[in-house]
Amino acid sequence: LDRYNKLKDLGEAFNAKLSLDEIYELTIDKAYGIIGKTDEAKLFLVTEDARDLVFHSCKSKQITASPSKKSDIFDKWVFNKRQPLQISDITCDFRFDYKQNKEKPQFNSLIAVPLIIQRRIIGILRLDSKEKNAYAADDLRLLDFISDLSSAAINNARLYIKTEELAITDSLTGLYVHRYFKERLTEEFNLCRNEKSKLSILMLDIDHFKDYNDKYGHAAGDKVLKGITDIMRGNTAETDILARYGGEEFVVLFPGEGKGKAKSIAENI
């Protein structure tokens, strides 16, 4: 009962997190701590193409131990089936030939659950024990609850990040919007003044863009704007700050750069 009471506190803890890394850390830490009986807890995340698993983090009893960062047949089973898995003894489970693992297993029993958002698997949470029959069915249910709480928190964090990105970037070009650029300009100007460093700014617009837009249509105009954006990105550094200032107006801020460098980049563009 005490372990299930901890789920309430865990839910509140997840709700207080908006950083994905903090949520991942909390997930593995609490799964390891609440369920117990565990020698090693692992978190795998699904790759962007949704075809494979990549190791994210681990918590182990042995601090000096080096965890295996490769997914094995058990992880892949959970990934493909999208179902929880409990194994009491890996040498006796008819579903798996544990000898397929290239590395000799350092565990004898495990429980693992998928992390799922809107029917899409995003990761796997797994606990291993060197003891046989270490986990009961109730442990698997508890891990599944933790997975549900974590998945909901991850989804909220991703939505928050997306909302933040949409609020500061132009939907067509992906460049910063006018409002956000003005905030960054103020920050960089104050930094430049305090540190007595250089700061340059470049403004440009597209000649006859309205005529082109009227003649060929907005879809063609959008392609021009995206093309100009690609050219700007190809001629600037990651530290430079690019923004769409208006309809066909663009601006670039060069922190730490003088007039000569800005003029050279302007000519290249």
From TrEMBL:
Biological process annotations from GO: cell adhesion involved in single-species biofilm formation; negative regulation of bacterial-type flagellum-dependent cell motility
Pfam families, alphabetized: GAF_2 (PF13185), GGDEF (PF00990)
Domain GGDEF residue range list: 197-269
GO molecular function annotation: diguanylate cyclase activity
Any single Gene Ontology cellular-component annotation: plasma membrane
Signal peptide: none
Cross-referenced CDD domains: GGDEF (cd01949)
InterPro entries (UniProt xref): Diguanylate_Cyclase, GAF, GAF-like_dom_sf, GGDEF_dom, Nucleotide_cyclase, Rev_trsase/Diguanyl_cyclase
PANTHER family named in the record: DIGUANYLATE CYCLASE DGCM-RELATED, REGULATORY COMPONENTS OF SENSORY TRANSDUCTION SYSTEM
The protein, known as: GGDEF domain-containing protein
